[in-house]
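Possible race condition, two jobs.
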Amino acid sequence: MTRLFVLARHGESVLNFERRVNGDPSRDVPLTERGEEESRRLGQQVSQVPLDACVHTRFPRTRLTAEIALAEREDVPLLVEPLLDDIQIGDFDGAPVDEYRAWKRAHARSDPFPGGESLDDAARRYAEAFRRLLASKHRCVLAVCHEIPVRYALNGAAGSDSLDGPAHEIANAVPYLFDEEALERAVEGILRAVRMPA
């Protein structure tokens, strides 16, 4: 049987709706009603996939998305993977998305957010998380995480020179499928991109 890795961003959160950012997993940011419905739809989309595990991050919105999506599937264990956590944005936690994006445009990927980590450090963390998935015993796993690790995986697997394109806007609670070779390419592509000169 071919191994399958399904990556999905969590359902819409209150801060998504408010266009604010959050990188602190201790802050409980609930899903909106739309986010709950998106999570149910994700469950329908993977209902015929023989999942043997579901990985989520330490952020409550990813666990809730997983719980809603898999509400009818008690046989699928939920496992926490902190390496897939959203980017640690430090002082920007709770700030408007536009402020966060303006800071990113004015700085290199290697520059850490004030009080947080850099985009390159987060990318290396995501590559290690995907390596862990590849090294696990799971043959078919759903990983509910955040927009950026899904984006980096898609662009890394495609061999893009940029982790931010061509795939950029990642919809909430939409499943993206990777076989083993594709996830291996994602790891290689992510690490190659962070080694490239700016």
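Job #2 (started ~2 s after job #1):
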Amino acid sequence: MLAKVAIRSLPVLDAPPAQPRLDGVRIKMAAGEAAPVFNGGPWRFIAYLEFLPGTGAWRGNHWHERKREYFYVIRGRLHGVFEDVDTGERAEAELVAGDVIVIEPRCAHAFRALEHAQAIECSPLEFDAGDAYPKVVGRD
């Protein structure tokens, strides 16, 4: 994977843990799943994202000079494409529910649904349209 992209899958626990887990885990219980993904942090931007399959549409196809982005895939599967704008190095990944993706500044990125998917995006910076530079990296 690129130096400007980190992907990790959160471990799944099938019952409440003996000791409280406050981040980085998925807890599956009879009442449903709880995923304390991030605990703390200076979040200034949080967004819900839905990805619809069968449209062929890509979400993203841009990069940021200053903004570091954190994504958590809630459900479904996505195809992710990443390109370091400084080196031109590219990588692709299939992303699934429970994956956390961290994209550093100056890394172009795009996502397309492989099946109905949902994600949360967080950033320590507020969204600034002036810090979003178009770059098509996801294409068919």
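The chain is about 0% helix and 50% strand.
Logs attached separately.
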